TrEMBL record, chains A, D:
One of its GO terms (molecular function) is iron ion binding. GO terms for biological process: iron-sulfur cluster assembly. It comes from the Bacteria. InterPro entries: NIF_FeS_clus_asmbl_NifU_N. It comes from Knoellia aerolata DSM 18566. This is SUF system FeS assembly protein, NifU family. The lineage of its organism: Bacteria, Bacillati, Actinomycetota, Actinomycetes, Micrococcales. Residues 4-128 form the NIF system FeS cluster assembly NifU N-terminal domain.
TrEMBL record, chains B, C:
It catalyses: (sulfur carrier)-H + L-cysteine = (sulfur carrier)-SH + L-alanine. Gene3D superfamilies: Aspartate Aminotransferase, domain 1, Type I PLP-dependent aspartate aminotransferase-like (Major domain). It comes from Knoellia aerolata DSM 18566. Its cofactor is pyridoxal 5'-phosphate. Belongs to the class-V pyridoxal-phosphate-dependent aminotransferase family. Csd subfamily. InterPro entries: Aminotrans_V_dom, Aminotrans_V_PyrdxlP_BS, Cys_dSase_SufS, PyrdxlP-dep_Trfase, PyrdxlP-dep_Trfase_major, PyrdxlP-dep_Trfase_small. Keywords: Pyridoxal phosphate, Transferase. Residues 32-413 form the Aminotransferase class V domain. This is Cysteine desulfurase. Pfam families: Aminotran_5 (PF00266). The keyword Transferase applies.
Length: 159, 433, 433, 159
């Protein structure tokens, strides 16, 4: 199946940066009500405003290969990156995932995230790929970082 | 004289879309259907849309990851978007119900004696002694009885706006009826008996000034006028699909987003939950929170096709066409002194529903005689019993129009009506004396 | 080996009645629909019946004296009689709802903290602190959450019967769970996950011994077994039309007459009243009392046609056919050590629903792979989240059968399943180690 | 229209024995919920068991021509008749009205009641013709006269 790219299977079997770590400013717990899958995600940000950097994203996740791969890629693509860049990555991921297959994703921006491009063709799975990202933006919101974030509504982008 | 924007040829083309209009009733009389206020007929386009769904996409929406389920979900949510757009709303603020009655009950049941511990903001929906619910004397039972029951459950008091002899709301005493005790104002947009269009603007302004919520029963307006929820300014709006060329078994509740979000669930079960444990559950955001169980999928798709059908004709043109028929009927009735119209006798703030009584002949007998000529009208209290009591009649005869009705059908009604005094004696003489 | 009473030719003839079964999904894979437990497809006979109603009789039943309305009323009430007969009930004890979820909520909402002053006998439905409602750990959310909410509203306590590792009700502690405090026992007849058929006889006997009412969720039994309300001895029984070849948007509640008569109304509005005054209303006897608003007319008629369709095939033969497919699937799964069935693994007291998990692969991924081959199964918690928690899985993959399924489709599922370990690595080795 | 026989129109315009009179053992009030029409009916019975006689039926009715004619005929056909005979008349009326047009009615038994035979072809009007009769059997029931009466359910016989 085109959906299950090798990269997805690798990430889902060996999720990067998995586990819950300290320190963190915000911890959130998100559930996907249609399947019951869950993710607990902690966010550690250093610095303020334009100089803020995502120091750590740690998580404990239980879910399908798509959701596991997605949160693993999230950690990989955001840890150590400026917050503004992480948000650009999020926007690009979201645009790709909700494009119904029209946006193949830009590897420059989302890295391994491009492996999830196929998900956009399966509306019921878009939520899987967004689960971790929604937790991430929610944690960001709770950490008090005032960055314009669109789409923190977990319902958005799913049919 | 108001002219219909539909040419006779256009009406003929419309009629061809409704197979049932070609049938005869009783002993061969062509059907003259003037009861669309009770339920409208369905064009083949709507029937085809439903059937096509069943034959190609049928599946339970929001309940699976397989291809059919995805396609059914897209079709169902697409229908929601289409229907929401028709009333100027966002899709996520539109809840599907089985009919308008369920939609109105859903709002009434959101209120209770105490807030729901799991729904932040639900204090807004807690009522008790000292609180008041304001309705009108012209409400359909669907927008009256749920509020009576709510008051019974919570100890709140039901009050009502009276109706004038002309069939308009009597707002002269509104200051004492609508006060800071008032928590809800539930009112019909277009009366299903009188045809009256109520002054929503004024009621909304007055209600919101005291922080009361406005629930609009739009059953008889959405099918016939252009309705825009934002322009109306109400808080909730309910209507049924079956009165607007849609299938039976589907209704719509629109609500202001922040209110829907603060509302406790009503029917509970599958697909409206967030998490379920044996001990307790948490609930999904609207509109899912209010759509428990496998929904009226095919019916939502049929209703979206009905909206397409209306849009193709143009709701403004439909309204003008119906008003032209209404004017002709009102003129015909005015020429018969033994007939009394209950409700406004001109076109000012009026929809295409005309109720009347015939001197000394019971409405059911009038209806029966008309039916004998193939003319289908509704007789009775039309689920607005208090309104009939106010006019001191047990029952009225009601004609109501849709896009497919013709001038000839109005004349057929009037002709058949003339046989009533022939059968029951001649009240013309009494009427003229 | 159980043999199906349907010959391959007969199954082929049945399939020809369901146009959707001829379609392909994804990139041309023939549809293998094994998700009838979520919703079944509809034969042309049902679609024709609905369409015929709309094209010939459409009108609002019980709302007029004209010919169409009379014919629609006769068709609607005829459908009620037909459907009631199918479950061994009298027509007047059958209430139409939009789905089983509404039917179960209707019963749960009949209970409240205090009797309804206008309904003699409604004391029976007053609950409070100290009273208990007993459910089971295998309930569908539709037969769990309404009872949770009822307990929240009234202060009653929810208790539940646990489930054994084999997926059966664990009745060992029933004496302490079902006591004179118990007012309601709400239980599923056939589990929509495990396939388990529950021991209704025993539960009814025990419940009635302490004067508790028994509410049976028969969503997964009425479509597949012969169900007779009198033989079952329960007090209420609910099911949906869409799982038994009927249209979406219609469900059924059957209730014991004296209970329905003592129940307060739920949805209120048109056609469920006796008299309405502004001050208060009185209500019609059942079933009208529970059918507010213009009903699901065409859907009731479609469901009656579905019942005709089932009767023509024979419900016993349908059940035997489905069990034959179930047996083949269970055998196939047993031969794959990397698959674990959740629920009974033999045919003893079992329906045609099989849920399973694949070692180390998430159910949604399993479902997605099957879907890629055109095999439509359901994945997730199937609206029975507590049951999944009890088995320590977030989700299962579920196949469920209907009369139109074939042996070839079971094999197609098993073949597609074998590609799962190919894609996700080889748990066969782990499973065998 | 075949429904409106001359006899029906006469009865409805000049209802026989109309008005409420004394003495009476039972008074009932019945409403037809579909139209809102009402009848108040009083029953005066003299004697017991097999010798009981309907001494008076008095009523105040508001309704359509069918219901008015029917209650007028009821009064005419029962006042002064043995109770058992009145019940036979009721049974015959009911059988005719619910026959969907197959039972034309026996003039020997129901007198002017035969004029209502056409009602059976109009299911929505059967309730009209039965309204007074249902009030009559209900009053009988309330008066305590133990006579086997079938069909006191006002819903019965209507679709
Ligand atoms: C056992 C069981 N109960 C209740 C339901 C709810 O039925 P519906 O969604 O049609 O209301 C279902 C199906 O979804 C079911 O399988
Ligand atoms: C004004 C009005 N309100 C409410 C209703 C109830 O609609 P429904 O019966 O479709 O629920 C109707 C129609 O019957 C109506 O005309
Ligand atoms: S199936 Fe649960 S997150 Fe993908
Ligand atoms: S119409 Fe009311 S009794 Fe006949």
């Amino acid at each position: 199946m085109d959906l299950y790219q090798e990269l997805i299977l690798e990430h889902s079997k060996r999720p990067q940066h998995a586990g819950l770590r300290e320190p963190f400013e915000a911890e959130v717990h998100h559930v996907n009500p249609t399947c019951g899958d869950e993710v607990t995600l902690r966010l550690h940000i250093v610095g303020e405003g334009p100089t803020a950097v995502v120091e750590d994203v740690s998580y404990d996740a239980l879910g399908c290969s798509i959701s596991m791969a997605s949160v693993s890629i999230l950690a990989e693509e955001t840890i150590g990156h400026p917050l503004s860049e992480a948000l650009t990555t999020f926007e690009a991921m979201k645009a790709m995932l909700t494009s119904k297959g029209e946006d193949p994703g830009d590897e420059e921006v989302i890295g391994d995230g491009v492996a999830l491009a196929g998900v956009a063709r399966y509306p019921a799975r878009v939520k899987c790929a967004l689960l971790g990202w929604m937790a991430f933006t929610d944690a960001l919101h709770q950490s008090g970082h005032r960055v314009a974030v669109t789409g923190t509504d977990p319902e958005e982008g799913t049919p | 004289m108001t002219a219909s924007p539909f040419s006779p040829e256009e009406v003929a083309r419309i009629r061809a879309d409704f197979p049932i209009l070609a049938r005869t009733v009783r002993d061969g009389a062509p059907l003259v259907y003037l009861d669309s206020g009770a339920t409208s007929h369905k064009p083949v386009q709507v029937l085809d849309a439903e059937r096509d769904f069943y034959e190609r996409l049928n599946s339970a929406p929001h309940r699976g990851a397989h291809a059919l389920s995805e396609e059914a979900t897209a079709a169902y949510e697409g229908a929601r978007e289409r229907i929401a757009g028709f009333i100027g709303a966002a899709a996520q603020d539109v809840v599907f119900t089985k009919n308008a009655t369920e939609a109105l009950n859903l709002v009434a049941y959101a209120f209770s004696g105490s807030p729901h511990p799991g729904i932040p903001g639900s204090e807004r929906f807690a009522l008790g002694a000292g609180d008041e619910v304001l309705v009108t004397e012209m409400e359909h039972h669907a927008n009256l009885v749920p509020w009576q029951e709510l008051c019974r459950r919570t100890g709140a008091t039901l009050r009502w706006i009276p109706v004038t002899d002309e069939g308009r709301l009597d707002l002269s005493d509104l200051d004492s009826l609508l006060t800071e005790r008032t928590k809800v104002v539930a009112v019909v947009h277009a009366s299903n008996v009188l045809g009256t269009l109520n002054p929503v603007d004024e009621l909304v302004e007055r209600a919101h000034a005291v922080d009361a919520l406005v629930v609009l029963d739009a059953c008889q307006s959405v099918p016939h006028l252009g309705v825009d929820v934002e322009a109306l300014g109400v808080d909730f709006l309910a209507f049924s699909g079956h009165k607007m060329f849609g299938p039976s078994g589907i209704g719509v509740l629109w609500g202001r987003r922040e209110l829907l979000e603060a509302m406790p669930p009503f029917l509970t079960g599958g697909s409206m939950i967030e998490t379920v444990r044996m001990e307790a559950s948490t609930y999904a955001p609207p509109p899912q929170r209010f759509e428990a169980g496998v929904p009226m999928t095919a019916q939502a798709i049929g209703l979206a096709a009905a909206v397409d059908y209306i849009d193709a004709l143009g709701i403004e043109r439909i309204h003008a066409h119906e008003l032209a028929l209404t004017e002709r009927l009102l003129a015909g009735l005015a020429a018969r002194p033994w007939v009394t119209v209950v409700g406004p006798t001109d076109l000012e703030s009026r929809g295409g529903t005309v109720a009347f009584v015939v001197d000394d002949v019971h409405a059911h007998d009038v209806g029966q005689v008309l039916d004998g000529s193939g003319v289908a009208v509704r007789v009775g209290h039309h689920c607005a019993w208090p309104l009939h009591r106010r006019f001191k009649v047990a029952a009225t005869t009601r004609a109501s129009f849709a896009a497919y009705n013709t001038v000839g059908e109005v004349d057929a009604l009037l002709d058949a009506l003339d046989t009533v005094p022939e059968i029951f004696g001649d009240p013309r003489l009494r009427g003229a004396s």
